[in-house]
């Protein structure tokens, strides 16, 4: 796929996120849709990056299906995770527990 770093995987042509095939380190520069993007924090394999800018309230699409809603503006190349994605399927209290564990250095 032209214009996208080979360490990123597009699972479905309708997806607005890309999946990391490898860990990316803070400070690395990658290419998404032909544009250079600087990674601001280390992000592990299997996590998602925005394939394009995603507006607040817009559906986040992976595998060609919506997996949640953007809780805020998500810029091109940003890590799409608990801080900016509201699941449409997981109960809020479960996500609150996951966020707390992440802040404490867990998952």
Q: Please, what is the oligomeric state?
A: single chain
Give the overall average pLDDT.
Answer: 88
Put simply, the count of helices is: 1
* Helical percentage: 10-25%
Shape: globular
Describe this structure in words.
By secondary structure, the protein is mainly beta. It has 1 helix and 9 strands. The strands form 3 sheets. The chain has a 4-stranded antiparallel sheet, with no helix packed on it. Strands 6-7-9 form a 3-stranded antiparallel sheet, with no helix packed on it. The protein is globular and about 35 Å long. The chain starts with 7 loop residues before the first strand and ends with a helix.
Supply database-style keywords.
mainly beta
